Amino acid sequence: MRQKGPFWQTGDSKTAGAEDKRSEQERRRGPFLNDQEDPLNDKDLQIAQWVQKMPDLEPPSDLLTSVMQSLQPKKRSWMKRVLLWAKSPKSYTFTPLRLAPAAMVLIGILVVSGYWIFGQKGPGPYPSQAEPRIPVVFNLNHPEAHAVAVVGTFNGWRPKGYEMQFNPEKKSWSLTVRLPEGRYEYAFLVDGQRVLPDPEASLYQDDGFGSESSVMILRAKDEKTT
């Protein structure tokens, strides 16, 4: 058997020295850096070693809550929501079965409204021109007043157009108004500030504001003077 000479011994010692050097570099680079294909220089190795030596820190307990709050969408104003709704495309589908309930409700409303508008015989705030009119003469003995008007349910309690005329001889205020038959509440507005009931009226009613209003009932065969 042939023994190895000095040449082979020198080659084995060189190979062993290279392997020891490679092992030392791998130890310095760490298990993570050993997986890298590209070789790192000394500066990169030093930075990698610092990173590996950094302690593992637990995240704050409120980290998840703060992240989720930052991801929540901001609430839009009502004007922006309306604009987005108006700009978004919409489609409507109508069928006879769906329209039938709405049509029945609409017909019912029209019937009830027609009954209340045309079926009631009582006078509204403004009497109808087609009904027969009864002349009513309003009189108030109040010579100290500067202006007097008649207000009541027949004119919506508005004095405009119902100003009374002063008679210097009788020292009283008077106005003639033609009204259809029915029940009316009225009073006198003196100087645009005071409301006085008719002192000659037979019926009175509380107006709900601490005062009284005069009441008159007209019939077609009567001619009323108050």
Along the chain, the helix and strand elements come as HHHHHEEEEEEEEE
Beta-strand segment tally: 9
Q: Quote the CATH topology of one domain.
A: Immunoglobulin-like
Oligomer: single chain
Main β-sheet: number of strands, strand sense, barrel status?
5 strands, antiparallel
Rg on CA atoms, Å: 52 Å
* Shape type: elongated
Q: Which homologous superfamily in CATH is the superfamily of one domain?
A: Immunoglobulins
Name of the CATH class of one domain:
Mainly Beta
Overview of the molecule:
With 226 residues, the protein is of the alpha+beta class. It has a domain at 134-225: Immunoglobulin-like. 37% of the residues lie in helices and 21% in strands. The strands form two sheets. Strands 2, 5, 6, 7 and 8 form a five-stranded antiparallel β-sheet that branches. Strand 3 and strand 4 form a beta hairpin.
Question: In short, what is this structure?
Answer:
37% of the residues lie in helices and 21% in strands. It is built from five helices and nine strands. The strands form two sheets. Strands 2, 5, 6, 7 and 8 form a five-stranded antiparallel sheet that branches. A four-stranded mixed sheet has the order 3-4-1-9, with no helix packed on it.
